[in-house]
Design goal:
Radius of gyration: 20 Å
Strand order of the largest sheet: 1-7-8-6-5-2-3-4
Number of domains: 1
CATH superfamily: Vaccinia Virus protein VP39
Structural class: alpha/beta
Largest sheet: 8 strands, mixed
Order of helices and strands: HEHEHEHEEHEHHEHHE
Shape: globular
Number of strands: 8
């Protein structure tokens, strides 16, 4: 990027035109690649669904993951499944996608201090992928033997973005050690606790700017005009890499006959 007006205009348009619907990054197909953790969260969820009678998917986005999971289960093996979503624009998207397969979508935001909309000891499985989670509430709604499968974005994720564009970590408390302590304090037995770091690679600076438009919480209040110098420097690279940090916490409520 030379800094010419046309380049800035292109980046401005790319950023303002990037709007997430559900949890869909297809606009960056071929321009964004990401390493995967060594565990298979989807496969673990699918296996747990087969053993469950009642389950919930927390932070379902647009319901895309639920559609994939249930698509891998015969009708007779599907549990009674509910989805929740905390970001208001995604609630109608998830409702539209999941209503045809009979999965209700409830508004729920752990960060707002909401109480999980389920009775005590009523669920066999809580699935949570990259969504705020209240582990005391999870322990309350899990039946004896019930299982939590949780994969989180570590609060130290994508530190490069803060190095380039400023700002502080938005979720410094989201750490495996803290969640493991909270799970144990809530009475859960932790079966798996694992951290991982890998790379996310953008083909060019425009792809990065589109990404920041899709996930505005990564760099709150990002504006192309505020970061011309950094963007110009990044444009000189043939690709742009940031560090992903993920962890998983699998736990269960003691008792019962639901295997972890």
């Amino acid at each position: 990027m030379t800094g010419a007006g046309d380049d800035l205009d292109r980046l401005r348009r790319a950023h303002t035109g990037a709007q997430m619907r559900g949890w869909d990054f297809s606009v960056l197909d071929g321009r964004l690649t990401a390493d995967d953790p060594p565990w298979d969260f989807e496969a673990d969820c699918l296996a747990a669904l087969r053993r469950s009678r009642r389950a919930v998917d927390l932070g379902t986005g647009g319901g895309e993951r639920v559609l994939r999971l249930l698509g891998g289960l015969p009708e007779e093996e599907r549990p009674l499944l509910t989805a929740t979503e905390g970001w208001p624009p995604n609630v109608p998207v998830a409702t539209e996608n999941l209503a045809p397969i009979g999965v209700p979508v409830l508004s729920y935001d752990a960060e707002a201090g909401d109480r999980l909309p389920f009775e005590d000891a009523s669920l066999d499985l809580v699935m949570c992928r990259h969504e705020a989670v209240d582990l005391a509430e999870v322990a309350r709604v899990l039946a004896p033997g019930g299982v939590l499968l949780d994969q989180q974005v570590d609060g130290r994720d994508a530190q490069e973005l803060r190095d380039w564009f400023g700002g502080e970590m938005q979720y410094p408390h989201v750490r495996l050690d803290a969640d493991r302590q909270a799970a144990t304090a809530a009475g859960l037995v932790v079966d798996e606790a694992q951290e991982w770091a890998g790379r996310m690679t953008f083909a060019d600076v425009e792809a990065l700017v589109v990404y920041l438009g899709l996930v505005p919480w990564d760099v709150p209040d990002f504006r192309v005009d505020d970061h011309r110098k950094a963007l110009r420097q990044l444009a000189e690279h043939t690709s742009i890499r940031i560090t992903q940090r993920r962890y998983r916490l699998y736990a269960r409520r003691p008792g019962g006959d639901v295997s972890p």
